[in-house]
Design goal:
This protein is mainly beta and 380 residues long. It has four domains: 94 residues, Immunoglobulins (Immunoglobulin-like, Sandwich); 82 residues, Immunoglobulin-like (Sandwich); 84 residues, Immunoglobulin-like (Sandwich); 86 residues, Immunoglobulin-like. It contains one helix and 31 strands.
């Protein structure tokens, strides 16, 4: 044993800080974020022998999720765009030559409900059959579940077993045909899932069904809705739109409704009605037309004196959610002192002559994006 090793042992016997394991803590000890938000934890060393190495782990000893990153010295752990699966304990492990110590932090991730129906439907059942549909949901906080019939606000009586909320008909009747909605709600949001139930039966009476109970289409496209009907004599099929006339650019041929060049105003509920001498049957298709953003700047030209305040509003129409982003044409960054607010404004409290130029607002949704420009001139 050489001299320095002996010296070290001696120091340790004397209780020197040279031989103490790290003293470590984590800040904050617990935090709650929404899904998609980012957060970070800081690991602090307040004692023990130097050098101290820091490392972060998930839970007891698992690797970090790929959206969790720790800085070069390991002191800060950042979780970017948090997911429900990121919920749990994170551990900062500090080690030095004397040993290792841990400190823990807890991350809670809140998220809006996700709903699952079993069976998913649409369902075609025979009159008199027993039918049940179960609804379950994930979400944090734990969502509350309820069932109702489309067009009615009354909650249906349900049974709950193992967190599955079910509607049940011991013997279904033809007037039970319709669309049923399971709603899951927590503080983060409300999610609804629909199931269409068609009860077939009654000799010769029509039973109508549509090929899709819900459709989402993009602005300008052509939509084809099919409706089929059983019954004898062969039912006659007509199409209508709930509380509105059919769009004028429509055709109906053998039960197939075609809408060309749809716009947002064509969104709504379309009804197929199959009629014969025994009665009629309706089936519904809910159609949503989505559009890319259309963007404008208000105003799109501004003339100011140095020292004036600048405020330009970016406006976008189209399917929500829409993200707005301001930038300066030909430059990497907005000028110092410029701020893009959450509601889409570009603001500079006191403009300088060098702030003159063209500014651009880009609006983006899940369909596409578009941009608008505003010209700013500042005189000395
Ligand atoms: C379907 O047709 C029946 C009988 O012709 C009628 O009473 C009913 O109102 C129609 N429904 C719709 C939504 O047009």
């Amino acid at each position: 044993m050489d001299l320095s090793a002996r010296a070290l042992i001696l120091c340790c016997l004397l209780g020197s800080a040279l031989c103490q394991i790290p003293v470590v803590s984590v800040e904050p000890r617990s935090t709650t974020v929404r899904q998609g938000q980012s957060t970070s934890f800081r690991c602090q060393v307040s004692g023990g022998a130097q050098p101290v190495q820091l490392e972060w782990k998930k839970g007891n000893n698992q690797a970090l999720p790929e959206n969790a990153k720790s800085g070069p010295d390991g002191s800060v752990l950042t979780i970017v765009n948090a997911r429900p699966s990121n919920q749990g304990q994170y551990r900062c492990v500090a080690s030095n030559r004397a040993g290792r110590a841990n400190a823990n932090a807890v991350l809670n991730v809140k998220y809006a409900p996700k709903v699952q129906l079993t069976p998913e439907g649409p369902l075609r059942v025979r009159m008199g059959d027993p039918v049940s549909v179960g609804c379950s949901a994930t979400g944090r906080p734990k969502p509350k579940l309820s069932w109702k019939r489309q067009g009615s606000s009354l909650q249906l009586l349900t049974t709950v077993t193992n967190d599955i909320n079910s509607v049940h008909w011991p013997a279904i009747r033809s007037e039970d045909s319709g669309v049923y909605i399971c709603q899951a709600e927590n503080n983060e949001g409300v999610t609804e899932v629909k199931v269409g139930i068609t009860v077939e039966g009654g000799l010769g009476a029509p039973v109508a069904s549509v090929s899709a109970t819900e459709m989402t289409v993009v602005d300008g496209h052509t939509v084809v809705m099919e409706c089929q009907a059983s019954g004898s004599p062969q039912p006659v099929i007509t199409w209508s739109k709930l509380r509105a006339p059919l769009p004028w650019k429509h055709t109906v041929e053998r039960g197939v409704l075609t809408l060309t060049n749809v716009g947002r105003q064509d969104s709504g509920q379309y009804i197929c009605n199959a009629t014969n001498i025994h009665g009629y049957s309706e089936a519904y298709t809910q159609m949503e037309v989505e559009s890319p953003p259309y963007t404008t700047c208000l105003p799109d030209q501004v003339k100011l004196q140095a020292g004036d305040a600048l405020s330009i509003q970016c406006l976008a129409h189209g399917s929500h959610p829409i993200q707005l982003r301001w930038s300066r044409v030909g430059r990497a960054n907005l000028p110092a002192g410029a701020e893009a607010t959450n509601d889409g404004k570009l603001v500079i409290a006191s403009v300088k002559q060098s702030d003159s130029g063209t500014y651009k607002c880009v609006a983006t949704n899940h369909i596409g994006s578009s941009e608008a420009q505003a010209k700013v001139t500042v005189k000395a």
